[in-house]
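We store sequence, tokenised fold; for instance:
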Amino acid sequence: MILYFSGTGNSLAISRQLAERLQDSVMPLSEAAHRNLMSEKRIGLVYPSYWFNAPRAVLDLIPRLRLSSDAYVFIIIPCGAQAGNAIWNVGKILSDNGIHVAYSNKIRVPDNSAIGFGRNPNDQVWKFERYASRLERIAKDIAAEVHSLHYAWWGPIGALCARPFIQKRTLPMLTPTVSPEKCNGCGVCINVCPRENIVKINGKAHCESNCTQCLACVHFCPMQAVELRDKSTLKERQYHHPLVKLSDLMRNDD
């Protein structure tokens, strides 16, 4: 079983591609947190690295997993460049619960947070040419149940970025707000948010305080009404993995 957390589809696409090669199945991490997975002999965790760490949503869900201590557990990080402490932090939580991570690795993908810094994630599609061969090697390692940890070490940059005084300065750069003038109340952002952090007030979407900075709402809003730092979101800079549709990430179709 491969468990994933995905905002714009990178982790979901990689989970599906691995599952196809391993003849396995995929499940959202949020659903897995409510399941008993003790009978699963192989568990994969696929989630991105946000600001050199695992997303807050992932760190909240991992302790709730019910896994066998005998399972072969692997972690794959889709990231723009650096995995940071994303593997180490989750591995520590699992270890404290008696679960050993046997294998870890990363795959570079377009960085969906680039939009927060005025860059276009779609300019990074060249990464897809490189990740195909890497994914094949990783799938072979997992199929053979190789025990090898890559990018799983603790690092000072990831630790520093997790400090409250740093997050107080950096998280606002990647925390969305909704422009009421542009919002048409369609509800796409509400249903694509994995944290249920967006609600509708007086017919308009409104972001609350439980954001995990996945930026799904920014990238999928059809009106470009969800913005970062009150800067206009440009349609040509909205990104999602080309193999993943909006409907794949929606919690429901209401």
Notes: The radius of gyration is 18 Å. The CA atoms of residues 7 and 215 lie 6 Å apart. The chain has two domains: 2-161, 169-249.
